[in-house]
Structure formats: C-alpha cells, structure tokens
C-alpha cells in the first residue's frame, strides 16, 4: 500500500497549543500542581516534538513503531496534564494512521480512542453522562476525530491525485519521445535514404561507364554531387524543424525536384493541380514523402523506365497517384520494409489512407488520399 506524507504543521501546532495551555493551567490553575508532574508533562511534549522530527527523516519505513511510540507518549502526556486539554492529542493517532495505513485503520483507531475515553469515564466517574463537562469532552473529542479524519482524507486524495498526474505526465513524455523518435526515423529514411539510393545508382553507373562512355560517367558523377547537396539541404531542414524554424513546404517545388533528381532511369513526370495553400504542412509533407518513397522504390527495385506522379488537391481531400511500368510485385506476399511502414504511419497521422496495386510484370500503382486539415 502506498504511504502518504502527513500534513506536517498539524501535529507541531497541536503540541504547542497543549504545551501553552498546560503550563498556563499549572501556573494560574485553581489548585497546586507538583513540579515533577509539570516537568514530566513538558518532557513528554518535547519527546513528541522530537518524535515528529524523527518521523519525517525516517519516512514510511518505521510507520508502525512511530505510531506505537506516539500513542505511548500521548497517553503519558494526558496522564501528567492537569488541565485535561491534552486529550485533544488523541485525534493525531487516527490522523497520522490515515496517511500510513489507510482509512480502515484510521477509523478503527478513532473508534478505539472514543471507546478508551468512555471506559475511563465508566471506571472513574460513575454517572458521568449526567456531568456536562464529561459529556462535553466526549463530544469535543468526537468532533475533533471527525475533522481530523476528514482533513486526512482530503490530503491523501490530493497527494494521490498529484502522484497519478505525475505518472500520467511521465507516460505522456515517454509517448511523445517515442513519437518524435519515429518521426525522425521516417524523416531520415525518406530524405537521406532517398538521396543515398540515388547516389548509389549514379556512382554505379559512373563506374560502369567510366571506360565505355566517359561523358555518361561524368554526368552520373555530377548527378551524384547534386544528390549530396540535396541530402545536405534535407539535413539542414531537419535541424531547422527540430528548432521549430521549419518553413511551410511547397509541394509542387518538392515534387519538381523529384522529377529532376537524376539523369538515370526512370524518367519521372509530375502533374499537380489545385490549391496547395488550402492544406497544412503535415498533409503536404505526407504527400511528398509518399511520392518520394514511390519514386525511390521504382528506381531501386522495380527497374522502371517511367514514373508518373499525379496530384489533385481538391476542396475536401487531396489524392495522389504514383504509377510506374516496372517489374511489380505481389502486395499480399510482400513484406513491407521500413519505407512503406513509415509512409503508412505518416499518412495515417493526418487521417489519410494508402492503397497499393501491383502484380508481377504489371507495374505498381500507389494511391494516397489525405483529407484537408487545418492550415
């Protein structure tokens, strides 16, 4: 069971009030009080103060010994106090027990305090129920117990709510970190992965044509250098995004870059219609990354000679189709790599959908639909 922290100022305040009241009664009371009794009373209150300080240092490890020690000291103080005011200290027993042991134990201790006072009255004061002072003391103790238990319940509820809020905040932070890691992983794959794939193809072409066609090899090297510059630009853009400095992406410009990205096959043609200003950055980024993934797969795996990217930005939803004339594959049998997984995740984050149509020798048709979100 969770151990909660008692309200620290309650017990010292009561000890101080009882100490002042007991000393005042010893000095100005109607009858003489022995010095030894007063000294014992003061020593008992001092021991309670010390016990309270020790309890804060030990925490919940020694909650039962602390409760028993507090009970014994309060009993001794009540016996030594001539004013009778120290009976109010009994409310501290269920009050502190509520934090350490829970409501049931606190209620049981409160009932035992009332039963103990009634037992003392029955044994030492026959007909006590006709004495207004005794009845008043009993009622005051009952009221004090009710107030103390109510205060403890409120304090425990507040501490429990705070702990739950802290745990919830920790879970949210963990989920946010995981989401950010996944986003960065998708960005790295979609940007750097695309350019590195292009560089690999271009460098292989340069190596193959170095002796046969030096001009073609030089063009491939130039395109590889261009891919390096584009990759560096994507890295800088990612850094700006991490610093919340990312600018709104231009889908038509980004897709035009795909069409110009490399002189090696496949040939990429792009067609964009509609107003992209009606769409937010998240939707436009999802469309671009999906097109980039489709073009990269066509270049790397499909051996396609032609890729077509058609984007229609309508009023309620945007629809993009990436088709190629490559080798194709069986979508049901294929095991999606991280690129396809990341693309689906990115599109789903903007409430979109992804559909892949392909077959062996029939090329591939990738359809992405993204609803219009808030700009």
What does this protein structure show overall?
The protein has helices spanning 10-28, 35-58, 63-80, 92-101, 103-124, 132-208, 214-242, 251-260, 281-302, 338-349; strands at 267-274, 306-313, 317-324, 353-358, 364-371. With 375 residues, it is an alpha+beta fold. Strands 1-2-3-5-4 form a five-stranded mixed sheet, with helices on one face. Strand 1 (267-274), helix 9 (281-302) and strand 2 (306-313) form a beta-alpha-beta unit.
The H-and-E topology, N to C, reads as: HHHHHHHHEHEEHEE
Quick check: average pLDDT? Answer: 82
The radius of gyration over CA amounts to 40 Å
Principal-axes shape call = rod-shaped
β-strand percent reads 5-15%
Which bin fits the share of residues in helices?
55-70%
> Which structural category do the helix and sheet elements fall into?
alpha+beta
Cα end-to-end separation = 49 Å
Helical element count?
10
User: How are strands sequenced across the largest beta sheet?
Assistant: 1-2-3-5-4
Number of strands: 5
Low-confidence stretches: none
Main β-sheet description: 5 strands, mixed
């Amino acid at each position: 069971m969770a151990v909660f922290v008692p309200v620290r100022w309650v017990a010292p305040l009561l000890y101080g009030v009882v100490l002042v009241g007991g000393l005042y009664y010893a000095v100005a009371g109607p009858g003489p009080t022995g010095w030894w009794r007063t000294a014992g009373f003061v020593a008992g209150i001092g021991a309670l103060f010390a016990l309270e300080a020790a309890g804060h240092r030990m925490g919940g490890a020694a909650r039962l010994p602390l409760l028993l020690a507090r009970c014994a000291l309060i009993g001794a103080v009540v016996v030594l106090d001539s004013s009778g005011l120290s009976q109010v200290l009994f409310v501290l027993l269920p009050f502190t027990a509520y934090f350490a042991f829970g409501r049931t134990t606190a209620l049981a201790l409160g009932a035992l305090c009332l039963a103990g006072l009634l037992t003392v009255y029955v044994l030492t004061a026959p007909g006590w129920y006709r004495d207004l002072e005794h009845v008043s003391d009993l009622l005051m103790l009952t009221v004090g117990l009710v107030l103390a238990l109510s205060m403890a319940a409120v304090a425990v509820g507040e501490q429990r709510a705070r702990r739950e809020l802290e745990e919830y905040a920790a879970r949210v932070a963990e989920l946010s970190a995981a989401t950010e890691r996944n986003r960065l992983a998708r960005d790295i794959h979609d940007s750097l992965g695309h350019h590195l794939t292009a560089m690999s193809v271009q460098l292989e072409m340069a190596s193959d044509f170095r002796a046969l066609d030096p001009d073609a090899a030089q063009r491939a090297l130039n395109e590889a250098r261009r891919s390096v510059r584009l990759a560096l630009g994507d890295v800088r853009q990612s850094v700006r995004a991490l610093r919340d400095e990312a600018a709104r992406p231009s889908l038509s410009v980004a897709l035009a870059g795909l069409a110009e990205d490399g002189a090696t096959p496949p040939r990429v043609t792009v067609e964009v219609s509609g107003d992209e200003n009606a769409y937010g950055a998240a939707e436009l980024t999802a469309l671009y990354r999906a097109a980039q993934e489709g073009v990269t797969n066509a270049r790397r795996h499909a051996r396609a000679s032609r890729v077509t990217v058609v984007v229609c930005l309508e009023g309620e939803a945007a629809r993009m189709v990436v088709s190629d004339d490559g080798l194709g594959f069986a979508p049901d049998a294929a095991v999606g790599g991280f690129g396809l997984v990341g693309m689906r995740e990115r599109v789903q984050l903007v409430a979109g959908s992804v559909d892949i149509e392909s077959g062996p020798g029939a090329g591939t048709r990738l359809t992405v639909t993204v609803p219009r979100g808030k700009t």
